[in-house]
Amino acid sequence: MSIEWNDRQPIYRQLRDLVVERIMDGSFAEGQPVPSVRQVAADYQINHLTVGKAYQELVDAGLLEKRRGLGMFVTDGARQSLTREEQARFFAEELPAFAERVQNLGLDMQVVVDELQGRGRDND
Question: Which pTM value belongs to this model?
Fold first, then answer.
């Protein structure tokens, strides 16, 4: 496996975000183990301490749990917790920026809403 790490953020944070994405999309299911620190370090050719730091942040956030002798597991409720956090972040950060962009472009908000609703129907 290979991944392109960017220089704007520490690797452990990028790895943490990757695990969060995988929990959110269901690739790492609740109650299931995540790859071991050694495996991730080998797969991505990074230091095991970097992986450990990323995993520890996820443990501290209540998204992973250590099971002695078994490894790290996704906690029950992790996906729901992340979804709530992401929804709150969306409403606090992304939606205001989007609304400002709509206003700056001189678009009618109802036209935008109608377009969004149309896109939602296309996915059904």
Answer: 0.77
